[in-house]
TrEMBL record:
The species this protein was found in: Vibrio albus
Organism domain of life: Bacteria
Protein name stated in the entry: GTPase HflX
Family: Belongs to the TRAFAC class OBG-HflX-like GTPase superfamily. HflX GTPase family.
Co-factor requirement: Mg(2+)
Length: 429
């Protein structure tokens, strides 16, 4: 579709430090992103500016320096650690005579490599097409040579319109298929809700160790590697927790600073698992010097997908990379677990993690013994059976039903509001 230079694996990296944004610490993460994409770094060019240059993003002198580095190193691609406009990409490609890729394009490329399931591939393609649609007009400038009125219009205009229509049609088709996937996921969630099965969702910065922790807890054999975005497709597994019963654990895609909005939108069906969770396990690489910034970056994405209100438990992972750190639980003033220090790689602290999870989930459960008069027994007993919350029941000599129930606090509150009978009057104190 594009008259552009082919991308290769020999790259020049460009990182500009904007003092007002304080992005200098992102350089090492940028190099990890490039490595995760399977690209070989030949040279890293850095610089400082007050604001991006409208034509080249970098200054004209720095742009010439990049072009000379491409020639001397025989590089095949230039990758920027910033979001470039279509015009800036095109101008740089013309100057450097090679393919130019920005941070968004790099992340999209990594996602395209990692996607395994049909849904994951659709989501990545959707994000790529949305990104591509903003660059179409620049991609076809070489065809816009003939100008004029009726009968004299060049093929570029027609081709551009055709490509835009094809893109729109493909995006609509993908959205329809993803909508079906979203409905299937919603059915699964409704079934779990009917069965009163709590859901635990793993979230965290990319490469924080979520999949390693997931495998340690569930023995699921999910692909885990020391690279960014090793996991794209969500995996669900059932767990048994003491005093809670069966629970569902969901492993999700990792987050990153300046995660492209197209990706967040495309992965909405996947991230729905996070929105609907009963509790989030926020996994953090405790050995990363920037772990506080990483926590903040994850919180920003959680807010963007409207999951910031879901209760969370902080899991400080990779204590095996720290000196003197031992597994432990940190509690707040009310004694509720807030942070657990573990090593998923070595399996240390897993018992404490289960303990903290059990306490947090069990604290959301209520348990009552009810004495129900005969006139209410049929409807209420069938309702409790449907909710699978009956622990014990027996009939007394006077015909009353003595029943022990255990359910989520939120479900009990809904039940009390919905029922005509005042359930609280039936509680045996």
């Amino acid at each position: 579709m594009f008259d552009r230079y082919e991308a290769g694996e020999q790259a020049i990296l460009v990182h500009i430090n904007f003092t007002q944004e304080g992005e200098w610490e992102d350089l090492s993460e940028f190099e990890m992103l490039v490595s995760s994409a399977g690209v070989n770094t030949l040279q890293v060019i850095t610089g400082s500016r007050q604001a991006p240059h409208p034509k080249y993003y970098v200054g004209e002198g720095k742009a010439e320096e990049i072009a000379q580095a491409v020639q001397s190193a025989d590089a095949e691609i230039v990758i920027f650690n910033h979001a470039l406009s279509p015009a800036q990409e095109r101008n740089l490609e013309k100057l450097c005579e090679c393919r130019v890729l920005d941070r968004t394009g790099l992340i999209l490329d990594i996602f395209a490599q990692r996607a395994r399931t049909h849904e994951g591939k659709l989501q990545v393609e959707l994000a790529q097409l949305r990104h591509l649609s903003t660059r179409l007009i620049r991609g076809w400038t070489h065809l816009e040579r003939q100008k004029g009125g009726i009968g004299l219009r060049g093929p570029g205009e027609t081709q551009l319109e055709t490509d835009r229509r094809l893109l729109r049609d493909r995006i609509k088709a993908i959205l329809r298929r993803l909508d079906k996937v979203a409905k299937q996921r919603e059915q699964g969630r409704r079934a779990r809700n009917r069965a009163e099965i709590p859901t635990i969702s793993l979230v965290g910065y990319t490469n924080a160790g979520k999949s390693t922790l997931f495998n340690r807890i569930t023995e699921a054999g999910v692909y885990a590697a020391d690279q960014l975005f090793a996991t794209l497709d969500p995996t669900l597994r059932k767990l048994e927790l003491d005093d809670v019963g069966p629970t569902i654990l969901a492993d999700t895609v990792g987050f990153i600073r300046h995660l492209p909005h197209d990706l967040v939108a495309a992965f909405k069906a996947t991230l729905q698992e996070t929105q609907e969770a009963d509790i989030l396990l926020h996994v953090v690489d405790a050995s990363d010097d920037r772990f506080r910034e990483n926590i903040e970056a994850v919180n920003i994405v959680l807010e963007e997908i409207e999951a910031d209100e879901v209760p969370s438990l902080l899991v400080m992972n990779k204590i095996d990379n720290l000196d003197g750190q031992q597994p432990r639980i940190e509690r707040d003033d009310e004694g509720i677990p807030r942070t657990v220090w573990v090593s998923a790689m070595e399996g240390r602290g897993m018992d404490l993690l289960f303990q903290a999870l059990t306490e947090r989930l069990a604290s959301q459960m209520v348990q009552y013994r009810l004495r129900i008069p005969p006139q209410y027994q049929g409807r209420l007993r069938s309702l409790f059976f449907e909710m699978r919350c009956i622990q014990f029941e027996e009939y007394e000599q006077d015909g009353n039903l003595l029943i022990d129930i255990r359910m989520q606090q939120v479900d009990w509150s809904r039940l009390v509001k919905r029922e005509e009978a005042v359930l609280s009057d039936f509680i045996v104190h």
